[in-house]
Amino acid sequence: MDRDLQDLVAAWLRNADLSEPRRDELLARLRADDGFRREFVEEIQMHGFVRAAQSAEPRWPLLEEALGGRRDEPGLEDSIMARLAQRPAPRRQPTWNPWWAVAGLAAVVVGVFLAVRSDGPKTETDGPHLPGLVAPPNPPAIAMLSHVVEAAWADGEPDRIEGAELATGWLRLALGTVQIDLFSGARLFVEGPAQLELRSPNEAFLLSGKVACELNASARSFRLLTPGLSVVNQGNSFGVKVTESGEQEVHALEGKVTIGRPGETGTSQILARQARRLDDSGLAETSFRPEDFPAFERVRDREQAEAARLLLAWRAAADALDGDPSVRVHYNFEEQSPLDSTLRNRIRGNGAGSDGQIIGARWSQGRWPGKGALEFRGRGQRVLLQLPEAAASLTLLAWVRVDALPQPTTSLLATDEPPEAESGSASPSFNGARAIRWELKSTGQLGLSISPSPAAGASAWTAFPSPALLTAERHGQWLCLATVVDSSRQELTHFVNGIAVARNKLPPGSAPALSHLAIGNATTTESEIRQGLSYGFFGAVDELLVALRAFSPAELRRYYEVGRP
Amino acid sequence: MDHDANALHAAIDEVLAGHRDAFRHIVREFGLGVRGFIASQLYHLDDVDDLAQDVFLAAFENLGSFRKGDDFGAWLRGIARNKVKMYFRSRMRRENAMERFRSEVTELVEPDLEKASLAVEEEQLARLLSCISKLPDKMRRIVQGGLEGQKAQALAEAMQSSVAVIYVTNHRAHKLLRECMARKGV
User: Fold this and answer.
1) Distance between CA A315 and CA B131 in Å, rounded?
2) In what helix (H) or strand (E) does residue A275 lie, and over which residues does it extend?
């Protein structure tokens, strides 16, 4: 970034005061240099768009008054969603680029959005049709991206996240540190900026950057190549550095390391705490500087510091949410003992839901170290709760880790019938309200199913599914799932990680029954038991919220962003 | 910007026929663009929203003077430019040299900013939020945090980095966002 541009942007953003000569200098360049002026304009324009898009939609009382009073109109983002829905489904880019994953997701989302929206509600018996989601064949993985600390991938790279499987190929890291665990047992700590090619479980090529390699006793040998060196490790650890200008160093961090040169038959060895530098005359001794290389302890320390910062930010946002009068249940799974059999509702007072009664589920770690969660392992396990009142509009939000979807339907949160309503009724109804089941399908769809209206005489539940987005590659990751029922607009919208993924038109008379609910399971009818059906959740939940109003897409996106691990 | 001209003209006709509620369509369609345009020139977000409201009020009152076939977004930005100028003028009397410097910069880059605004389609703006959410972690935090005022220093401290690196990373994030917004179907 041009120094003048940086100074001008900093001054523009009130981040720096400039002397008079410097101000004159910058003004002169702005006048004379078209390219510089354009670049500055692009920078401040994007600042403006980002600020406007990310800020809450303003209230404009004078304008409302001029228009004749405020009405509950859809927000700006709803309007954006509607426009997106009117566009044809996008096509996948022919070559890989960093936004490929986004484009693919959006294509599916928009396609399904259109299909679901135009077709109206589906019932389970209809067998809702979703566009094909055939994943392209993946090359076999040879490593895991085990840790990602304050990292940014270089331009043109996919946005790899922690826990991703890695195949052979290039990794270009712009900033931060990542830990790569190869299936051979070799462990690489890569510090950005770095360009590394994974060639096999036993070999990688470092074009530039710093890599520390660890091998424990169970690992096979590993070879790290550079443009001028071949470094072989048969135990312990070493560090290799290749600068942009081509300077190369090898440091034996623990144990001895064998170094070879391309085209040469012989090798040389260096002992622990020794280092070699490659120059024109060959390998030369250089000072041993282990601190130059990323190390397990430092990566962990920074990772923990980052996690602590994220946890604090989420806590502040979660506390603020508790002040919202529409929120009736907010389980944040915090400040609870692993022996607690009650899940504390953070909302108190009139209209608040009850604490949860934990049945069988076990306490475990949530999104960050120090954050609690409940782990569910299928049959029987659940948390029971009650709500004193119902409302036509509703927001359900949960941070969940899905470990498996082994049965056709898994219940996240469901109306739990009181015993007297259960007997002899396949279509439970509570004073006109209809039972709901917030659920996951084995196909990876998030859905809300609503029991039939007794008046309609139907027997099948009506399902409102999302596209199949929670597929196996997302298992084990923390996801923010939300479903919003907006009665004023007769709409039901599903969100995954703050993004609206499906919108359905709701038929009239779909007020949900919320008085008795179960998290992580649903009561099966006798007929379902005979069929061997069950709804138990396999995974973990570390936050759950029930609000009696429709949250806006902007609210949900913001809450996802502040809570993403 | 790329708006549905028929829907816009229908809304204008309705407003001019006395159905003022139809103006909501216009606010909804152009709200983000106008706020973004003003936010690129002003520091305080509250001021941005106040000025944006003034722009729409002025547009509402002067809607009869808008000629169909002209670019409605450019017409709104013309109103916005005047509002921004008046804003700077009112503050220059009491503000310091840096404020005057910023005002001068605004005037210098005004034609380029208008040209750049013309090149951004509504569809692209609609993609911005999704694009931000897909930025790499560090970039996303910087973009979401913003660099106004003392935020750049605070971010640099929190990320154990330097202010210069924060600016460079933000610059690169903007480049990625522009690429992402320009890509159809994201």
Assistant:
1) 26
2) strand A275-279
Q: Render pLDDT for A471-495 as a digit per residue (tens, 0 to 9).
A: 887 888 899 999 999 988 889 999 9
Nearest to A436 by CA among A379, A377, A484, A499: A484
Do both A516 and A405 map to the same domain?
yes
| Minimal Cβ distance to A66: which of B41, B57, B101 | B57
Confidence of residue A84 (pLDDT cuts 50, 70, 90): very low
Residue labelled with tokens 């590394």: A196
Bridge partner residues of B46 (DSSP): none
pTM of this prediction? 0.52
Q: Could you tell me if A326 and A435 lie in one domain?
A: yes
Q: Which domain holds residue A203?
A: 141-294
Q: What is the CATH number of the domain that holds A323?
A: 2.60.120.200
CA distance A237 to A212: 7
Question: For residue range A295-320, what is the model confidence (pLDDT) as tens digits?
Answer: 777 777 777 777 787 888 888 889 98
Task: Say if A459 falls within a structural domain.
Answer: yes
Pairing of strands A282-286, A433-434: unpaired
Contact flag A51-B57 (C-beta cutoff 8 Å): no
- For chain B, the structural domain boundaries read 1-120, 121-186
Provide the number of structural domains found in chain A: 4
**Which of B27, B38, B171 comes nearest A1 by C-beta?**
B171
Q: From chain A, pick out residues whose CB is under 8 angstroms from the CB of B118.
A: none
Q: Could B147 and A99 be called an inter-chain contact, meaning their C-beta atoms sit closer than 8 Å? A: no
d(CA B98, CA B103): 9
Three-point CA angle A200, A205, A211, nearest 5°: 105
Q: How far is A148 from chain B (nearest CA, A)?
A: 9
- Class of the CATH domain delimited by B121-186: mainly alpha
Position B63 pLDDT exceeds 70: yes
Q: In terms of domains, do A308 and A437 share one? A: yes
DSSP A168: S
Spell out a b/e string for A382-402, using b for 16 or more CB atoms within 10 Å of the CB, else e.
bbbbbbeebbbbbbbbbbbbb
Asked if the interface predicted TM-score (ipTM) of this complex is over 0.90, the answer is no
B112 to chain A, minimum CA–CA distance in Å? 6
Residues of B in contact with A153 (CB under 8 A): 136
Three-class SS state of A333: coil
C-alpha distance from B16 to closest chain A C-alpha (Å): 13
Please list every residue in chain A whose beta carbon sits closer than 8 Å to the beta carbon of residue B136. Answer: 151-153, 159, 174
The CATH topology of domain B1-120 is Rna Polymerase Sigma Factor; Chain: A (1.10.1740)
Q: Which residue has the tokens 């549905």?
A: B4
Inter-chain contact A175–B138, Cβ cutoff 8 Å? yes
A494, A483 contact by CB (below 8 A) = yes
Angle between helices A34-54 and A20-32 (to 10 degrees): 100
Closest chain B CA to residue A554:
B129
Beta-ladder partners of A413: A438, A519
A8/B147 Cβ within 8 A: no
Give how far Cα A220 sits from Cα of A168, A213, A214, A233, A538, Å. Answer: 18, 13, 11, 9, 35
Torsion of CA A313, A319, A324, A330, to 10 degrees: 110
B118–chain A Cβ distance below 8 A for any pair: no
Instruction: Decide if A10 contacts B88 (C-beta within 8 A).
Output: no
